[in-house]
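Standup notes
- DV: blocked on the single-chain target, sequence here:
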Amino acid sequence: MRVPAQTAQATQSPGLPADLEDRIGRFATIWSRAIFPVTATSLTRVEFERHLVPLARTLSEALHARAFDPAVAQRVGGELVAVHCTDPDALAGTLGVVDSYLVLYCGPGSAGPEETEQYRARCARLQHGIAAGFARALRERTLREQEAIARSALTARSDAQEALHASEERFRAVFEGAAVGIGIADLEGNILEINDTLLKMFGGLEGHVRGRNVSEWGHPDDAPHIWRMYGELVRGEREHYRAEKPYYRHDGTVLWTNLTVSLLRDAEGRPQYQLALMEDTTERRLLNLRLRYEATHDALTGLPNRTLFFERLEKAIGGPADDGARFGLCYLDLDGFKAVNDSLGHSAGDRLLVEVADRLQSCATGPGEVVARLGGDEFVALTTGPDTEQKVTDLAVRILSALAAPIRLEGRELIVRGSIGIVEGPAGERTPAEVLRSADITMYRAKAAGGNRFEFADAEADARAITRHGLTNALPGALERGEFFVEYQPLVDMNDGSVYGAEALVRWSHPQYGVLGPDRFIPLAERTGLIVPLGRWVLEEAVRQARNWQREHGGPLRINVNLSPTQLHHPGLVADTVAVLENSGLEPGALCLEVTESALIGADDELLEPLRRLAALGVDIALDDFGTGYSNLANLRRLPVSVLKLDRSFTQGMQQQPADPVDVKIVEGIVALAHSLELAVTVEGVETGAQAAQLRALGCDTAQGWYYARPGAPDRIHALSLSDATP
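- DV (later): unblocked, structure below
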């Protein structure tokens, strides 16, 4: 047999391992070792392995294809049959190798849990495709053999008219030695002859087969057209037909066959007999059913998986919106499941998931209710019917009640809690993906509210979450594209009213949402870790601008830059700050780094060490939003700060006269305390002249706010408005 030439190496997609071709070769080696011993081929094992390399490459390319097409795997199954890999063990070995090694050797070089789950799902569908292609190719090969046998049988019967003895011998040899079941019946359906293969297929009891009539072998699963084609054949209107047909054996079990029935005519062409060829496909059918089950059910819990649930959800919500059909979906995520895995191990976590799955199944027993596991500790429950709003609420209550009972695991009792997002509505308005996305967002809303509860989906909350997600995804590219810019708000010396410095405030010029303030994206940058490169960029821009001001105005202007908690923990904080100062030529004393009070509550010496090193270099450290963190005032002495930045909540009562006496006393006390510790006091949020005058009288050192100037471009740093921002 000629070994097909290997195809040229496919262009690798970004994200694929650089040694993908070597991985494909190793995968082909494992594959050949698994199935070569059961392969009836004239190739050597090395030649057979070379033959598998293009097939392995085909599976790898299908695994990574942008438009996933599991039909590609069917060709691989057909190729196995083409090289005589027809033994069932060859198919089982192939499926085992693909399941265990395809993603391992041919998957992405690095992937997160969600992407890995997508590749595993593709791998499962490729296995199904291989089995389907294998079965189809084997069936086609068998059909060709059947047709050859049928032609041989017809030839033998025809030759019997000329040489009865010789033809009888040949026919009997074919009839008895065939690997498929053969039976002959008259046109009334009475069975006249059967071979041993057919007898064994029906359980080996001759009385159960021979002498019976074909009409007695009906089965509830017979396709409607089978008996119509049978009638056409015995009437001489059809020469043959093929069908998949089940039969009952004498013990009640079901025999599934690929059935081919042909009409035998006499020398004058009149219909005389019917010849049936049967291939036993029971094991192959059971294999396909098992593969279908494994592809659509969770291996750990036995619940329907994401694939099957999507099918059922699509069926439930895919009807027309005006037929009154409704649905309700509960999206459950266990609270604190990661702690169970981390403390007791993944084996204990798996047992916990099995117990949770059992409890969920006991909650969804009504008509139209189904439970599935989407992955990890995420489950969904679906209910349908005319009054799903009440039904889905009752279902969520039953689920939380079922989870409330302690689960005994590893000798201890665990209390399992869960957060549920509920989506309910009429069918025909949303796609399954939209429904699950809304339920997922709502579930996280329930978790953020404390967990162990359920929340109903809200369109506005969904829109806000989607916007946040979009901003999070756009953040890295925005920094690369230069969409961020810095505005500066003047810091005013309260003694003489001059501009003492400025605070750098980052903005995002978003192409869709316009200019966004830091409250819209800084928390997102904190969660994604982008705050570190973004914070360094802001520091570089602010320090460069401060140096430009010094050149233009001749005097030192201090620049204040905010530090996030994540930046405080970053090991490169000190080195990055020193490098920025050295590159710009700005003196350390002209830089003030603002740290929120809440970020330093309970800070240990390890966290304070970088700030102490920066303070030792001459960089001022300001304690921002002072008074909001409920910190111990005695801790001020151990913090390396030189400035207290008083939160605006303490000074709002001074915007009008007469000032709130309580606020005056509080600010007066904080200023006295700060000055006794040799700390300067900066006030933010100054919006009126009366407020500024009162704060000046109380001894505050510097101030900023809309009374002086709003944040703006760097060339407006000295343009003070000195007008009330509030009536």
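- Follow-up: Residues 599 and 719 are 33 Å apart (CA to CA).
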